[in-house]
Design brief:
The structure is a single chain. By secondary structure, the protein is an alpha+beta fold. It has helices spanning 10-15, 107-111, 117-124, 137-154, 161-189, 197-213, 220-226, 231-242, 246-264, 269-275, 281-292, 296-301, and strands at 6-8, 21-25, 29-34, 47-49, 52-59, 62-66, 69-73, 77-81, 86-92, 99-105, 132-134. It contains twelve helices and eleven strands.
Length: 302
């Protein structure tokens, strides 16, 4: 059976951008300089990436779907995706000639960087609420300088190249983490009813688990147990942060997976039912129609 929701490592990810300038470090690190919208066509279909991706928009714009939410990436902005996120280009911009820098890093590479990465992201970059931020002139200049230096380091041929690049990226994350932390802190001050950091962290962990297990686990008890919470309390925190119930999030991921398989694969309904762990086709039909207003067959043929 063909898997629709493909998972890409960096080597596969590089193949999505043929003909663009790139600098790479094996299967650990990759930089692409994208100046044509057609280079983004491969991401029009949903996919997962098993590493970290940063997209710098220097000119133009596009809409990017991350885990069912659409984010607008505009000039002078930065957007970061973490492992396991479902990503899709929802709309390619019009008007100005596009210029995007895409930086992809493997989990192995990031684990070798000597920073408290989880703390930096939890306190500085709330990637589910706000994965993108607009940079001012000085901040953009700093990012450009780091990118230029990273490309130069990647172009060198010496034994400690990976270690040098790791130190450079570590420094870059501390700078960007501070910048984005300040911007998000300012945004939270203007929204006094914003959820607590504890609630936001639980929500992020919940979405991460749903991203990984939604095809086989739709029971709230499973996720609550993984997070050492009661289902009722988990539901309360998820609702508080997102405005949507926890079961709604789970169902949305299942529906997204089902839609992708129906539209972009040759899998039979029976195979989709098996992949998504429904007890039988009848239950799957009722579930799908209740959420979409169509039967799976009607959706596939629409």
């Amino acid at each position: 059976m063909e898997e629709t929701m493909q998972t890409f490592d960096i080597r596969k990810f590089m193949k999505l951008f043929p003909g663009v300038y790139d600098a790479q470090l094996g299967n650990d690190f990759f930089i692409a300089d994208i100046r044509h919208l057609t280079s983004m066509d491969a991401l029009r279909y949903p996919c997962r990436f098993d590493g970290y991706v940063a997209i710098f928009c220097l000119q133009g714009d596009l809409d990017l779907d991350i885990n069912l939410h659409t984010f607008h990436l505009q000039e002078n902005s930065l957007l970061v995706c973490i492992p396991g996120h479902i990503v899709r280009v929802a709309r390619l911009g019009e008007g100005a000639e596009p210029h995007f820098i895409v930086v992809a890093m493997s989990q192995e590479f990031m684990s070798g960087i000597h920073i408290d990465f989880n703390r930096l992201f939890n306190e500085g970059i709330t990637l589910l609420d706000n994965p993108g931020v607009t940079l001012d002139g000085e901040e953009l200049k700093i990012c450009r300088n780091y990118l230029s230096l990273a490309i130069e380091v990647l172009g060198l041929d010496f034994p400690m190249r990976k270690e040098a690049l790791s130190s450079l990226i570590s420094s870059c994350f501390y700078v960007l983490g501070s910048v984005i932390s300040r911007k998000l802190s300012e945004a939270r001050k203007s929204s006094p009813k914003a959820p607590s950091m504890r609630a936001r962290m639980v929500f992020e962990q919940f979405i991460h688990l749903v991203t990984e297990h939604h095809s086989s686990q739709r029971n709230m008890a499973f996720y609550a147990e993984r997070l050492c919470l009661t289902p009722k309390y988990l539901s309360k925190l998820v609702k508080q942060v997102s405005g949507r119930s926890a079961p709604d999030w789970i169902d949305s991921f299942v529906i997204l997976e089902a839609k992708n398989m129906l539209k972009y694969s040759d899998a039979t309904i029976k195979e989709i039912v098996f992949h998504l762990h429904f007890p039988n086709q009848s239950v799957f039909y009722k579930f799908f129609k209740a959420h979409t207003g169509m039967t799976p067959s009607e959706y596939r043929n629409s």
